[in-house]
Amino acid sequence: MEADGFVSRRRMSVDTTSADGGVTGAAAGADIRWLGGRILNATGGIVGGLTPPRITGEKDFAVAMHRAAPEPTTATEPEIDYEGLPQGVATSTHMLAGAVAGIMEHCLMYPIDCVKTRMQSLQPQPGARYRNVMDALRQIVRTEGVWRPVRGVNVMAVGAGPAHALYFACYEKIKFSLSDAVHPGANSHFANGMAGCMATVLHDAVMNPAEVVKQRMQMYNSPYRGVLDCIGAAWRREGPAAFYRSYTTQLTMNVPFQALHFITYEYLQELLNPLRHYNPSSHVVSGALAGAIAAAATTPLDVCKTLLNTQEALALTAEGAAAGGEGVAAAAAAGGGVGGGGRHISGLGEAFRTVYRMGGAQAFFKGVQARVIYQMPSTAISWSVYEFFKYLITKRHHERRLRDRDAEK
Predict the structure, then answer these.
(1) Which single residue of 125, 219, 328, 408 has CA 20 to 30 Å from 167?
(2) Residue 59 — φ and ψ, nearest 5°?
(3) Rounded to whole angstroms, how far apart are CA atoms 315 and 244?
(4) What pLDDT, in 10s, does the model give residues 341-390?
(5) Helix, strand, or coil here: 268?
């Protein structure tokens, strides 16, 4: 599989401890060592970015790659592997880091997400027609109030925590299990992609109801007073199916999104951070680029998902008139507002036909600018916060293990 480019070595070099307590490595003859918080080669050129601070009372804090091939080392302490679950730490390590990352990601970028939802409207009303993202934010704040772009953010915070906790914990477990099966001791891009797909199934099962409520509250002239009013109205008019009508479409979108996202992220990490130290700058850059590429490629499916979630009344009216005449159109219009009663669009195939009939091929890329602008910082925040908390929790566990060992002496 290495010949096909699916597998690359996790470990580029083996770290050893130098006489002055620094870290040296032998990779293609380069002498890599710690110096002033940067990794420098023998000629003084910068070959690494930000590095974690050294742990007080510990001679060596070199973060090794997960399951690297064992080689002789003079270090008196085992190397720390923050990439994998540390021995003695439960899966809750990844769940806690993932939950915090998910909540911060969705809450900080929520105003852009609101703009994306509105720009994906198939037949926007005159007051909701925007030239670009900044124009949309200015109009929303000026005409609807300063808090309107964050309306519904509370339901996203409630949903994002458990969804991302399951997502990252499942991803980490499956990634290393599949990597061992495909090629022990190596980083398999195929395993990364499959792990992302499997984790998405759990993530979307939790997030889909929150997405439905969020997007209905984000739409222009949304008739709901709040989250509970939106949930109650959707339940009464459409039943529990309303909260999972877009689940298969969401999976159809998120499976390729996450596969492309994780493969791109892990590939960029190999280029920017081959030794897999905790390196904030590499996590931010890799996460942002991975999110942008995946977001642009899956925008058509996101447009269909938004239509299924919002059941946009104007779209239903136009679709009904085109498909079944005035009677169907009147039934659709009778529902009134976003997610109204009457006829419902269900299924990815029907959503695709509706989008194409109403806007042509270009309609599948409505809101692509807002989606990319949302995903770049969103995934950068998610990965950097996740990697930081994973590193911090693993570091504290290691310090506690050192204290326990010293106490036994």
Answers:
(1) 219
(2) -70, -35
(3) 20
(4) 557 888 889 999 999 998 899 999 999 999 999 999 888 888 888 788 77
(5) helix
pLDDT digits (tens, 9 = 90+) for 201-235: 888 999 999 999 999 999 998 989 899 999 999 99
CA distance 96 to 166: 10
What token pair was written down for 93? Answer: 């390590």
Continuous segment of H or E residues that includes residue 186: strand 186-188
Which residue in the block uniquely carries the two structure tokens 């504290």?
A: 396
Structural contact between residues 106 and 113, judged by C-beta atoms closer than 8 angstroms: yes
Q: Give me the phi and psi of 31, to 5 degrees please.
A: -100, 100
User: To the nearest whole number, what is the mean pLDDT of the chain?
Assistant: 74
Q: Strand, helix or coil at 345? A: coil
Residue type present at position 273: N
- Torsion sign (Cα): 120, 125, 128, 133: positive
Task: State how far the Cα of 215 lies from the Cα of 226, in Å rounded to an integer.
Answer: 12
Q: Which ranges of 145-297 does DSSP label H, i.e. alpha helix?
A: 153-182, 189-218, 227-238, 247-272, 280-297
